[in-house]
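User: Can you model how thymidine-5'-diphosphate sits in this protein?
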Amino acid sequence: MAKFITFEGVDGAGKSTHLNWFADTLRARGIDLLVTREPGGTPLGEKLREILLHEPMHAETEALLMFAARREHLAQVIKPALERGTWVISDRFTDASFAYQGGGRGVVVEKLEQLERWVQEDLQPDLTLLFDIPVEVARERLTKNVALTNVALDKFEQEKSDFFNKVRNAYLARAQKNPARFAIIHAEKSPGEVKASLEKIVTSV
Ligand code: TYD
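Assistant: Here's the modeled complex, given as structure tokens:
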């Protein structure tokens, strides 16, 4: 059966680079898969992403828009793919809403759980790779990246360390609640070491 795999972590954890390698490794095994992202993944979702990453708004508005984009993503992309046997790898999914809107912004967890049930029913990722990293290390990486690429930081990336510590802790709490679904990657290690732990995971999926 087609699998649904998600990649998560605070900004600057380095998940996107590793995601591409992970997807290529599965494709080389002959697996039909698509890579997508949240917020985004559909034309409407990408418009919402622009708004979410740049416009200031109430924390609950942010949560609702994240789940609205997710509803569309599930209907247009994720569910049809899984039904036809195509694997799906998503760069972020619902755990990010619990981490950023719940942990970071303080949206009540029960409200997020209601949205999760409404939007997903019983669909959950088969596997979630959480790139966990001390917040100071992630901040350093983000700053270096800005210097190298000249790309400005978005609304979330501009948040302070305190916000990211809350995001990180909320991610770890989600992982603790769902140990069978989560694999925690120690993302402060060297790229080679991170890849070695991913190699183990990719052969077991
Ligand atoms: P990110 O995935 O880090 O993309 P890039 O690597 O291009 O910067 O950016 C998405 C941002 O959206 C990230 O800061 C986390 C945030 N986010 C939420 O706050 N809640 C959510 O539910 C999702 C999916 C993302």
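A couple of observations from the model: The two ends are 11 Å apart (CA to CA). Residues 42 and 73 are 6 Å apart (CA to CA).
User: Helpful, thanks.
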